[in-house]
Specification:
Arc Repressor Mutant, subunit A; elongated; 2 domains; alpha+beta; 141 residues; single chain
């Protein structure tokens, strides 16, 4: 058995060092031994110094198709269709505030999020003086 990390145990037999890493090929080789007629998973696991539950976990992964060797794994390409093109700005957009005509009311939504899950959302006409007082009060919190 080729160990990539040596594991140490204390006087009670508990692992104290880093975990042992097993390659996919090593896992598949150990799993192949468990499929031999009359083989005991716990005996095979004990022979490698592995808990039997780890080997049973590998069996579940293999059954689901999640444990594959490098030689059997092939990359497959999926078809992609672009529905609407993405446009990247070539020049920075310049936003200028629109001035409301005399007597005209502006409507919209102003939403501001503060740290601590505080959210202020104002619908309709926005009175800047009132909004400033709200923000000042939140800043003092």
């Amino acid at each position: 058995m080729d160990a990539s990390v040596s594991s140490k145990t204390d006087r009670l037999g508990r692992r104290t060092g880093p975990r042992r890493k097993y390659s996919v090929e090593e896992k598949l080789r150990i799993l192949a031994e468990t499929r031999v007629a009359g083989a005991s998973v716990s005996d095979i696991a004990r022979g490698y110094g592995i808990n039997a539950n780890v080997v049973f976990g590998w069996r579940r992964l293999e059954r689901r198709g999640l444990l594959r060797g490098a030689s059997t794994e092939t990359a497959s390409m999926l078809p992609v269709k672009v529905e609407s093109p993405t446009l990247l700005p070539s020049v920075k957009a310049r936003v200028e505030p629109r001035r409301a005509e005399a007597g005209a009311r502006t409507h919209g939504v102003v939403e501001v999020e503060f740290p601590g899950e505080i959210r202020v959302r104002v619908h309709g006409a926005v009175d800047s003086a009132v909004l400033k007082r709200v923000f000042d009060a939140l800043a003092r919190r």
